[in-house]
Amino acid sequence: MLRSFGCLSLLVIFLIAFDCKGSVMDYACLEITPKRLMEKPRFLTATDGALLAYWVHKPSIVSDQQKVLVFYHGGGAYQVDAYQQMAEELAEKHDMTCYLFDIRGHGYSAGNRGDALSVRRVLLDVQEAIVFVKQQNPEALLFVGGHSSGCGLLMNALQKGFVPADVAGMIFIAPFLGAESKLVLKSDFIKKVSVWRFIWHGITGYGLNQPAVYFNYPEWLRQRSPRLLDYYTVAMALAITPTDGDIYLQKILVPLHIIIGNNDKQISSALLQEWQKKGLLASTTTVTVVPSAGHFSILSATSSILCNKEQQ
């Protein structure tokens, strides 16, 4: 328990930095006009009986070498229009079948909002989603990807063995790798953090399902996307937070493509570029910085970036 408290106390030190407002995020880019109406979600039944929402975007003509992507959204969000259009473009331009999953407790998936039974349960959901997609596409090259906190979730799952090390590759878009990451900038994304709830959980083991991290999505966006979350509990915050994310990012051996905008108000593209120039990232990791793109608007550039990389 004391060891757990030590890890959590380190997390808390950096969480304090988010208990304030900073640069305004490009929230409007989450809500775009999709090319077609958003389809109703399908559901994968997890081993505990919970229904996990997902959408599938398939290319009109499947190439000889099939590619499949399992993708997770950012913190407090769900698979809104911007993600759906990104996936549709990847299917059309990149011949990649995309499975977009709502994390448990988010969007259309089951579970208390912003909460999870445990950290392990969330990671198991990722594992079960990957197994399901592989069964549906046994001959395809499997990629996993995420945006913002979705990257943190996948890295946490990879660290703990819930993502197979033999995936064809990973795609991280504007990766949020935990509050202690040096990549994180001060923005207005987090309204406040109840630091004492992390401390209480670290000392006693209780309070795992208490609200702890409060989001600052603007009211106009909440009205248009009513399933956006108000907060994360301790459990969900820990689920999307990898251990020593910066260090692990520099050592990750799975082929990884990081895509980020140079106008991102939450993640430092400059530091990522510096790490790349200094050779601090693995040789299998590439970084693409998109001029003028922000934390959310980067989603609209993703398909073009991946297509250009494939043609190189």
Keywords:
312 residues; alpha/beta; Rossmann fold; 3-stranded antiparallel beta sheet; globular; disordered N terminus
Any low-confidence stretches, pLDDT <50, length ≥5?
1-7, 12-20
So what's the overall shape? Answer: globular
Number of domains: 1
Strand order of the largest sheet: 1-2-4-3-5-6-10-11
Biggest sheet, open or closed, and with what strands and sense? Answer: 8 strands, mixed
Tally the helices: 10
| Radius of gyration, taken over Cα atoms and rounded to an integer in Å | 18 Å
What does this structure look like?
With about 300 residues, this protein is α/β, with parallel strands linked by helices. It has one domain (about 1-310): 3-Layer(aba) Sandwich (Rossmann fold). It contains ten helices and eleven strands. It has helices at about 1-15, 80-95, 120-135, 150-160, 195-205, 220-225, 235-240, 245-250, 270-275, 300-310, and strands at about 40-45, 50-55, 65-70, 95-100, 140-145, 170-175, 190-195, 210-215, 230-235, 255-260, 285-290. The strands form two sheets. The protein has an eight-stranded mixed sheet with strand order 1-2-4-3-5-6-10-11. Helix 3 crosses helix 4 (about 150-160). It starts with a helix and ends with a helix. Residues about 1-5 and about 10-20 have low confidence and may be disordered.
What is the secondary structure topology, with strand pairs?
Elements: H1 2-15, E1 42-45, E2 51-57, E3 67-72, H2 81-94, E4 96-101, H3 119-136, E5 141-147, H4 149-159, E6 169-173, E7 190-193, H5 195-204, E8 211-215, H6 219-224, E9 231-233, H7 234-239, H8 245-251, E10 256-261, H9 269-277, E11 285-290, H10 302-311
Parallel strand pairs: 3-4, 3-5, 5-6, 6-10, 10-11
Antiparallel strand pairs: 1-2, 2-4, 7-8, 8-9
Helix pairs in contact: 1-5, 2-10, 3-4
